[in-house]
Amino acid sequence: MSRTSVELLSVPIDRRAATPLFRQVYAGLTAAILDRRLRPGAKLPASRALAERLGLSRTAIVAAYEQLLAEGYTTGRIGSGTYVATDLPDKPAGRAHAIKPAHGTSRGVPRLFGNVDVTMQNDDRPFNLGRTLIDARTADQWRRLSARALRTMPRSHLGYGDPRGSEELRRATAVYLHDARAVRCDPGQIIITGGTQHAIDLIIRTLLPMGSEVWVEDPGYPLTREALSAAGMKLHSIPVDAHGLDVIAGRAAASRARAAFVTPSHQFPTGVVLTMARRLKLIAWARAAGAWIVEDDYASEFRYGGRPLTSLQGLDSAERTIYVGTLNKALFPGLRAGYLIVPEPLLQRFVSVRYLMDRQPPSLQQDVVAAFIREGHLTSHIRRMRERYREQRDLLVDGLKRHAGEFLEVEPPDQGMHLVAYLRRGLSDCMVEQAALDEGVVVRALSRLYAHARPRQGLLLGFSGYPAASIGPAVQRLAKALRHVAGRGRLNAPASPANP
Predict the structure, then answer these.
(1) Does 416 reside within a domain?
(2) Number of structural domains in the chain
(3) Which residues have C-beta within 8 Å of that of residue 108, sequence separation ≥ 6?
(4) 373-405, pLDDT tens digit by residue?
């Protein structure tokens, strides 16, 4: 390795910092790659050599290299070493668009289309989506913290508070997101919301005038599509492939769109991850077009293969990304707590709109959530549930392969709380959906989630919210429904609009 290359890999290390050492190495290397101090195709030094140079353990270097590989910054060649990826786009040149006020944002009563199926949302039968579990330990901690909040209830609850939410909860959330998702933010940039849908509504009201052009994933999350349609947006359905959102197709369809709504770390519903090359292209497009990226980072806590991927927001030095997260998936949907991270220049506008919407989030509950995060209970809960959900995922995949393998193609997802089972033999997912419901099993037809792209026939099955003992019998009932549909011949009924 040349002396010049060694200098390029001079990574600043602060042993007194709270940031883990492997994360500091990772940050230094990504900065060198993105700034082109490490050119595409350049070979990284052996982990042992870099560990000796930096005075760190080889374990820290290996962990950093694994994260670089997982996120697409590098590629590995067996017997040769680790190389900088060659498909990363050039760093955008010039200044980013200035943030300008939105004009013409007033709109009438939202126009809803009657596609939101509220009757199915609370169905607790396997394998409905969006359901969670908590164990006795979490339940006991929640009761204790709730009782303490009531006993100590300060006078601050007797008046109105900050529309962004309590400082304690915002500070705890900022620390948690920095450690878990490499999100860059100050607590002042966080707005506590009631969940993802509340955050999306706030973004629409603040930034998007009626008639704005926006990108949405195809297939994609139907409630985001419904909310945008109801607000009078002009939607451009951008196809999703094995590498995530097709940014080139998005630019061809609407290069001057005002926003792109994406689920980059675990695309809904397919589960694919937006590659690093496309992440950087998306950020470059937003910077050049003066557009916004809305990053829905749902279920990011539940990654089963390696460390969680770095958030898109953490990569975006141009501050064109608005980060949306929720605790309703990490804990339980009845909590109704999420967060929105807003670039500093937009903050006052968002706070004003939030104040006009509902003044502030519930303050007493915020005390409980803040203590739950601050005392380490959230991290511990996620670690336990991640193992439990992994076991239930594997149990479901094994059952589907054994009892319905002739009808389904299924692999365990690396992240999330649901899986996609693709149908074989020309079966209609809409017909299977109804046949399964007749057998007491809730599955969702994948084809309903496509707008313009050619739909695939598949089933969405949630695995996170059910006792392990209920999974096997439910799989057998689903297999019975599949046999029933298959016995009626090759059926490809057209998909009708619906909401999972």
Answers:
(1) no
(2) 2
(3) none
(4) 999 999 999 999 999 999 999 999 999 999 999
